[in-house]
Amino acid sequence: MTKQLQAALAAMLVLSTVSMQAQTGTSARTAKKAVRKKSESTLERTLRELREQMQAQQAEIDELKQQLSNRDARLSTASQDAQAANASASAAAAQAQQALTAIQSNHEEMQTLSSSVSDLRVTNVGLAQTLSDTKRDVTAAMESPTTIHYKGVTITPVAFFALESVWRSRSLASDVNTPFNSTPYMGAGMAHVSELNFSGRQSRVGALFEGNTGPFKLSGYVEADFLSAGATSNDNQSNSYTLRQRQFWGQAAMQNGFKVTGGQMWSLVTETKTSTDNRTENLPMTVDAQYHVGFSWARQPALRFQKSFGKFTGAASLEQAEYIYSASNAPANFFIGAAGTGGGLYNLTANYSNNVAPDVVVKGTYDAKYGHFEVGGVGRWFRDRYYPAGTTSAGATNDTKAGGGFFANLRMPATKYLDVGVHLMTGTGVGRYGTSTLPDITVHPDGTLATIKSQQGLISLEGHPMKKLDLFGYAGAEYAQRTTFLNDKGVLVGYAPVTANNTGCNTESIPGGTGNGLAGGAPYNPGGAANCLGATRAVIQGTAGFTYRVYTNPKFGRLQYQLQYSYLTREGWTGVGGAPKATNNMVFTGMRYYIP
Q1: pLDDT digit string, tens, across residues 270-321
Q2: What DSSP designation does 12 have?
Q3: How far from chain centre, in Å, is Cα 587?
Q4: Three-state secondary structure string covering 206-241
Q5: Which end of the chain is less enclosed by CB atoms within 10 A, N or C?
Q6: pTM, 2 dp
């Protein structure tokens, strides 16, 4: 509706109202005038009244026009005020929006600034902690270095210092290493006396050398103890035993998991804790330096190749060979080696075989959360030179026999506090790899060699009930099979013939013998078991013990105490007079300090 239309309607309403009021007011005045002027004519009165009405109406119209004009002015002013208010409101809204935007921007900037300040505080705290840690580490490295640096090589010392003892119910005239296959039958005088020996000879010194070139890592390791005897070594006063090479090898390790290792090391036959890595050998926890019956091992010069494929590792090794020989009624028309030659730097009192090839050992391992597993095999070759004519060299020739075997190791946690291990090795000509060193070979009546079947097994239980305490229990056995052949005279030749004389194995002999020129003369000449071949069928051992770490600190090292009890049985093959048997009770103690 337009403003003009609105004004017209308003005017009509006002005029109607005014007309009605005018009519009412006019009637009243007319009555009053009629009273005053009774002599006025009708026409005059009518005209006068009309004029008065018109004047009144005109005054009312003028008043209404003024009111309308005032209203229009007010409406115009109100409209202008409304427009101004709208404009002001729009400007205010715009300003409010700008202010809100500015506030939001400022809030975001404040939040960013606050976050930056918080981050800066954290960074400062972390930087301060890093500086403190770095200072501490540098100080610790200066005061207590874990390695020695020489050019680009780091050198890590390895050592422990030991006081150990062994008591045996049947004397073996041996230090803390037990020659298991020498436990005497009851016919020997040594079977009736005990022995108690103290020793510090298993103390060990060594070092690991490492240099990282980037494409590959170079390592070298040396380890030695004093479990070796020179010509003048004795227990009388100075105990001057000689330093012995245990391990001495170098290694190149590629980034792709391929490693080459050469030198004297543990045989690849030996169980490892991780992959086929050197220095992870899983040895029995015994104080006995000969470890435990059923444990297969050797330390000898070797060249090892290994490659890892994730959790799997494959390895092959070429290792120094040596034969262990035993035979009864053997012919004299052959030889397998000779005594060491002084000029060749071998021991003049030891025998050495003429090896035709190195021992070849292959092994695969798998490492998982639930255990470590190994399978492998060993190949061996034995050669002798024999003389078919017997009394002349006519027809003399060399003869080579092959041997070898299979081995497996399993080591896994049975519970959080107990680890279980199983070892097995079986084959022909592998007796040397057993800790009892049962024979590898014997001989045929014609002078050619024959391999002896043997088996080795060990069950391990190692508990960790406390952080400082380890408990261990082992049960192991080694077996050598009877291997004999009938010659043309009807005599059995070979290892452990059933016709062997065992009649004196359990009858004690009186002292006798003159020794070997160096030792063993009276009164150091106990009688041996006379009339007793006693070829070993099996050696069995059970062991229980514990290791208690009295003190352990990464800065100062570890002090520990060990106690071991073992019961040893040596069983002979049946011969004339029966099957002899020897037993031994052994108690070992050890106190060691390991450098950190």
Answers
A1: 999 999 999 999 999 999 999 999 999 999 999 999 999 999 999 999 999 9
A2: H
A3: 32
A4: EEEEEEECCCEEEEEEEEEEEEECCCCCCCCCCCCC
A5: N
A6: 0.77
